[in-house]
Amino acid sequence: MIKASNIQKSFGKLHVLKGISMEVADGEIMTMIGPSGCGKTTFLRCLNGLESIDSGSIQVGNLEIRSGEPLLTEVLKKVRMRLGMVFQQFQLFPHFSVLENIIEAPVHVNAISRQEAVSIAMDLLRKLNLEDKAHSRPRELSGGQQQRVAIARALAMHPQALLFDEPTSALDPRMTGEMGALIRALAHDGLSILVVTHDMGFARRVADRVSVFDQGLIAEQGSPEQVFSNPQSAALRDLLTESA
Ligand SMILES: Nc1ncnc2c1ncn2[C@@H]1O[C@H](COP(=O)(O)OP(=O)(O)OP(=O)(O)O)[C@@H](O)[C@H]1O
Ligand SMILES: [Mg+2]
Question: Can you give the pTM of this predicted structure?
Answer without folding.
Answer: 0.94
